Amino acid sequence: MTREEKAKYIDDLAADLKANNIVYLTDTAELTVETINSLRRRCFQSNIQLRVVKNALLEKAMDRVEGKDFGGLKDTLKGSTSVMFSEVANAPAKLIADFRKKNAKPILKGAYIDEAVFIGDNQLVVLENLKSKEELVGEIIGLLQSPAKNVLSGLTGAGSKIAGILKTLEERA
User: Fold this and answer.
1) What is the CA radius of gyration of the chain?
2) Helix, strand or coil for residue 101?
3) Among 44-53, 81-90, 139-148, which stretch is predicted with the lowest mean pLDDT?
4) If pLDDT is split at 50, 70 and 90, which confidence band does 44 have?
């Protein structure tokens, strides 16, 4: 790779890092070609971008991104590294966990999600349980609607009970 190609590669990687708020770093070393192609296919189907990168170039790209602190992620840049970019925070974690039911890898090195840094494979369960923005908005709307529904059902239920009692008394008389 020439110096110009490296510079362009770093610029492209820095642009991807700046454009995405959800970045996962994984170890995909020792996966067979067939297995890595299967992983790529599943990433594509899940709208996750997967790139195998060189650690030194990724570190330089991280240094070029202003406004984002990747913190301890730079310390995980050892061995083979693949980067996953996604729009949904827990999608790569779910994909990794599902893929590892049949394979030993990929192993999560770390993740950067909206200014939060998660380091280590032990964080995979935490990342899987993160809720997407849409899920959180849905839960908030449900919580806001719940008290109003309870009041309405109470009023409706009480009104029908009173009407039933009055009808029963009228029929007796």
Assistant:
1) 26
2) coil
3) 139-148
4) very high
Helix, strand, coil shares of the chain as percentages rounded to 5? 60, 15, 25
Secondary structure (3-state) at 146:
helix
Model confidence at 154: pLDDT above 70: no
Q: What Cα–Cα distance (Å) separates residue 165 from each residue in 71, 162, 171?
A: 68, 5, 10
The residue with tokens 């039911």 is 101
Angle between helices 33-45 and 91-99 (to 10 degrees): 150
Q: What is the DSSP string of 22-45?
A: EEEEEE-TT--HHHHHHHHHHHHH
CA distance 12 to 24: 17
Q: Is the peptide bond before 147 cis (omega within 30 degrees of 0)?
A: no
Report whether 130 contacts 89 (CB < 8 A): yes
Q: Give the CATH number of domain 3-130; options: 1.10.10.10, 3.30.70.1730, 3.30.1330.60, 3.40.50.720.
A: 3.30.70.1730
Task: Determine the Cα–Cα distance for residues 154 and 136; give it in Å rounded to an integer.
Answer: 27
Q: What are phi and psi of 94, to 5 degrees?
A: -65, -40
